[in-house]
């Protein structure tokens, strides 16, 4: 005798809580589907298992608490739940935050013959990123001549004046390639942070364009970047046509650097400053120079 709909749904929840991907899939009919706000469409079979495993990878202690459950004679089940977990694994290409989440949601399942035909989950898809301390940015991809994207700055805290800048500009052929290039760029940034003479970088991603501008104390400071680590590997892959639609690189030497300025704590004037503990004309000690780049 097949399980009733409430029992089927309980088996589904139990499989989630024991982190049993095949157990989750076994509660679905052969063509049964799972959908929620993050899946970009229905998932079936192995795709459901892969989705569950990705969540367990990010939240190894993930578990669901059923708050309420109702069902009717037509095999429709509605359940409120609370998902809890601690982010101790990487997520969306980002390192773990160590933060805990408690996400409320609801599932609506159609069950027949002891199997789930379809399950639709509803929850606030922005709640998890917010709980993990991630910014939620809503913007268009483009308006007329303006393209929109994301940016990141990395610095080792140096306030030295730059003697050279490097500019790298790559275009990806597809989103998957862009993801690989972004991950490689993250590794290159980690390498640069340990290099003598490195000051800081700003990376920008707009559509299929990935641009990075780095600041260095001298031209010679960036020489090791070309000879070792992820950067050398990335350049090799680019020139052997493994990925990339095109791009450019260049090294720029400043033609003129105007003096940095800080707000004087004594007279409130914006005052040129380069040497630490320099005095303003009013006699007040000025703050240290801010980072140039």
Concise overview:
This protein is α+β, with helices and mostly antiparallel strands.
What descriptors fit this protein?
293 residues, alpha+beta, Nuclear Transport Factor 2, Chain: A, Alpha-Beta Plaits, 3 domains, five-stranded mixed sheet, five-stranded antiparallel sheet, 6 helices, 23% helix
Structure report:
- Helix content is 23%, strand content 33%.
- It has helices spanning 5-17, 21-26, 46-58, 127-131, 175-192, 229-239; strands at residues 28-35, 63-71, 76-86, 100-112, 115-123, 142-143, 146-147, 150-155, 164-171, 198-206, 209-216, 246-252, 261-263, 270-272.
- It contains six helices and 14 strands.
- The radius of gyration is 26 Å and the shape is elongated.
- A five-stranded mixed β-sheet has the order 1-5-4-3-2. A five-stranded antiparallel β-sheet has the order 8-10-11-9-12, covered by helices on one side. A two-stranded antiparallel ribbon has the order 6-7.
- The chain has three domains: 5-131, Nuclear Transport Factor 2, Chain: A (Roll); 148-252, Alpha-Beta Plaits, CATH 3.30.70; 258-293, no CATH class.
Which SSEs are present, and which pair or pack?
Layout: H1 5-17, H2 21-26, E1 28-35, H3 46-58, E2 63-71, E3 76-86, E4 100-112, E5 115-123, H4 127-131, E6 142-143, E7 146-147, E8 150-155, E9 164-171, H5 175-192, E10 198-206, E11 209-216, H6 229-239, E12 246-252, E13 261-263, E14 270-272
Parallel strand pairs: 1-5
Antiparallel strand pairs: 2-3, 3-4, 4-5, 6-7, 8-10, 9-11, 9-12, 10-11, 13-14
């Amino acid at each position: 005798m097949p399980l009733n709909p409430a029992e089927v749904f309980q088996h589904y929840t139990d499989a989630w809580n024991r982190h049993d991907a095949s157990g989750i899939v076994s509660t679905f009919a052969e063509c049964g589907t799972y959908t929620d706000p993050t899946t970009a469409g229905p998932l079936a079979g192995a795709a459901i298992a892969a989705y569950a495993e990705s969540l367990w990878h990010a939240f190894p202690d993930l578990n669901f608490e059923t708050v309420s459950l109702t069902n009717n004679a037509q095999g429709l089940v509605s359940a409120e739940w609370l998902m809890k977990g601690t982010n101790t694994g990487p997520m969306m290409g980002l390192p773990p935050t160590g933060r805990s989440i408690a996400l409320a949601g609801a599932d609506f399942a159609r069950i027949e013959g002891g199997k789930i035909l379809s399950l639709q989950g509803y929850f606030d898809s922005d709640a998890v990123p917010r709980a993990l301390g991630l910014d939620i940015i809503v913007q268009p991809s483009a308006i007329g001549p303006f393209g929109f994207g994301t940016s990141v700055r990395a610095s080792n805290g140096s306030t030295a004046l730059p003697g050279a800048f490097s500019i790298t500009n790559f275009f990806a052929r597809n989103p998957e390639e862009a993801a690989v290039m972004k991950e490689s760029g993250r590794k290159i940034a980690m390498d640069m942070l340990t290099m003598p003479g490195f000051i800081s970088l700003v990376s920008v991603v707009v559509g299929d364009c990935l641009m990075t501008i780095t600041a260095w104390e001298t031209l010679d400071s960036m020489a090791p970047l070309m000879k070792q680590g992820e950067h050398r590997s990335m350049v090799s892959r680019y020139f052997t046509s493994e990925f990339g639609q095109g791009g450019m690189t260049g090294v720029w030497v400043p033609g003129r650097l105007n003096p940095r300025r800080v707000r004087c704590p004594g007279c409130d004037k914006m005052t040129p400053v380069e040497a630490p503990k320099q005095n303003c004309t009013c006699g007040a000690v000025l703050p240290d120079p801010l980072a140039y780049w």
